[in-house]
Fold these 2 entries.
Entry 1:
Amino acid sequence: MLSTQPVSHEAGRQRQGRLWSNLKEVCDLLHLPPISINSEELLFQHVQFKTGQRVHTIGQPFDMLYVVNSGFLKTVLIDEFGNEQVLAFPMKGDLMGVDGIHNKTYSSEAVALSDCDLVLLPFKKLTTLGRTHVELENMMYGVMSRELVREQAMIGMLGALSAEARVARFLVTLSDRFSQMGYSSKLFNLRMTRHEIGSYLGLTLETVSRTLSAFNEIGLISVDQRTIGIKDVDALKSLRRLPPSRTRSKLPARAKAAAAEAQVPLLATL
Amino acid sequence: MLSTQPVSHEAGRQRQGRLWSNLKEVCDLLHLPPISINSEELLFQHVQFKTGQRVHTIGQPFDMLYVVNSGFLKTVLIDEFGNEQVLAFPMKGDLMGVDGIHNKTYSSEAVALSDCDLVLLPFKKLTTLGRTHVELENMMYGVMSRELVREQAMIGMLGALSAEARVARFLVTLSDRFSQMGYSSKLFNLRMTRHEIGSYLGLTLETVSRTLSAFNEIGLISVDQRTIGIKDVDALKSLRRLPPSRTRSKLPARAKAAAAEAQVPLLATL
DNA sequence: CGAACCATTGACGGGGCTCAAATTGTGTGG
DNA sequence: CCACACAATTTGAGCCCCGTCAATGGTTCG
């Protein structure tokens, strides 16, 4: 039902019956300092996608980047057996399509999980413009680097955290994102299935479901189908565990602040 | 010992007592089409690092990209407990430092696993130059996008493959890389410890060790400490398994070629 | 209103982590 | 060059987390 999703598109204006955004609005969306560019007339077109529609598919010729203005999506890899591997859940302010630059074809698939409004960024246009506007060029590099850092963090999580910790982090991250977007950080609806969450976190859907139920029972959250209430953010944030432990480096003087106080004793002890 | 490591540096020339490379040589190193740029005099300095030395550390101000000309390294994340998470094992032709563009500080640490020779690419110089040379700019975007795609594949692996499959893939990838570099693809030395491999693959060092021993026993490889002999590449390549299975998408008509013939029945059945 | 799809929960087993010890390799100082 | 300390690797035993299989009920949508 998407009841909590706003229909208003702050960024964007009508023109020729469609929505368009100027560069400043795109920068705002990406959480980047606005670029003082003379060409105020530079506009980017929006496109709408309905739930279930594909924004781009694997192998499709690349020519566009996309910025999410509203709505929720998933990006997935498809392996040789047809299995989906969820890579991310892009939402407002996220950039999509960067993986297509290399090879000139998209290497992932983007699917709308709800009705979406996306800003189209023709890549050629962007680079051409960047050549004369240093700030734009820096923005491009910055955004791509940010994506890379994000993925590195993801690798770190998949490589080092337990199922409980992954789910907890997932919830905290979602909460933060919703908060950024002006929604409640304490109560929100998941736009994806347990299956998709599991794929994203490297877990099965049953483990995701069980972990959510466990969090619910000990009062960290409330769960009702796709409605999640965050009850104890701090507990969720500090919930860790190190299955591949003994992975400690021998340079203890490194942790910026061994300020990691006593951790929640994890669920098993309850 | 590094007995199999060549001391020669194909790319690079002496000048002022140091090694320098021009743009064409850098492109070759990165496996990119050579850029026909007029400034033949454009040279990039090399720097040498000894085993154990850090190329850059987390938080250090960013201003350089690095291309590996020879030697082996690891890039790592450090979590709040001081634990290392290995992100990659850069070797000849790999680019390092891209994660530093965003935030102007490196978000990972690069450590030399052997004596190394790196080409320094001052980022400012690169972008400035890219503004007047479209090809160079495209190269920059392309390389960054390639890194991103690589990390996406890594996420897919960590999220979907069993321990055996991860180790098998790791070996095949290494074999390919060594082959590319002109070494034997059938016999090579690991430059990293079991611990580092485990961190990279999201496993414990014991699991890595046991898996290698198991591969050895069934004749897929030979193992003697850090010397690996590849006996049956095809078996290693086709060795998969899908712990988070049932992850099959409901659109079976997708797999580009259900050409996935019968797989090796995995170790457990032997 | 029925047919998918989705979520929850239980039972069970095994893959991989933990703890432990023995062996071998590696680096450093005398 | 050798001896010693330490790091790396291997291997075993045990167990627990989480994947697998299965059944039920709820939700959605044509």
Entry 2:
Amino acid sequence: MGMYCWGMARAATTSDAFNAVAEPRRRAILNYLAMQERPVGEIVDSLGLEQPSVSKHLRVLLEVGLVNVRRDGRRMLYRTNAEAIRPLHEWTETFERFWRHQLSRIKERAEGKSNPSKDSGPHFIPRRKNDFDSNKN
Amino acid sequence: MGMYCWGMARAATTSDAFNAVAEPRRRAILNYLAMQERPVGEIVDSLGLEQPSVSKHLRVLLEVGLVNVRRDGRRMLYRTNAEAIRPLHEWTETFERFWRHQLSRIKERAEGKSNPSKDSGPHFIPRRKNDFDSNKN
DNA sequence: TTGACATATGCCCATATGGGAATGTATTGT
DNA sequence: ACAATACATTCCCATATGGGCATATGTCAA
């Protein structure tokens, strides 16, 4: 019967910049290629990764437009296409006002009174059994 | 014999904020919970997702500190912890000067002469067979 | 205490990796 | 044409999902 798409598990790293930069080495590569174009070999030497690995990461970055390539003899010169990072910057930027807000609230509270009661905790994980404020029982 | 860690395939979504926000619905949730704390049910109704799905995403967000929780009766009030998004903002920000640079270069070129030769293409994928500038053969 | 309500988890399963190793392909030099 | 150099791709395989569904937990109301 009609079971089209079933589990998609997780979006492809090649589906968008957000997924692509989720990988630390890819961010490292983008950092490395930001100011200057470089051949694959230099990335390999510089970041200490395996060549096939670097090629694969570059492929992913290329597919989402985070890098550009140019051939130079037998070398492939890659370079970060900063413009493609812009959407991420803009998304994160929409939260800037909120963290400023939170900071001021925290500061306020810190100066006001040394009350150790957390705002619900910096962030706190309910591992299994819910026992948030189990001050009953 | 000693084969410690083998394939790690991909970092866990709970390993860091970058991985956590790679998922579109999680970003949607973060947007939704940015200005005000909300119970799970409202997220479900508002974003049109299944409740278990929302709970799982919230769990991921919670583990990397992107949201905070607070219990209110039988409801769990979640809220975005903008502070945790800051590292992403800062990383993307390091590329800002580069895209400004590129924009000016593009603009310059566009005004200079209407030369259709691409800078190596906006970004261009070498699908299989390498045929970058195969103007030989 | 019992039932309703609000969430969180557990299960099952297909998909998308990402590393390592081996191999294919393109380009240059002689 | 042939070897060397520089990359890209393929295979194999374990891991981390994420959706749908059923079910467990926790809390409150009568």
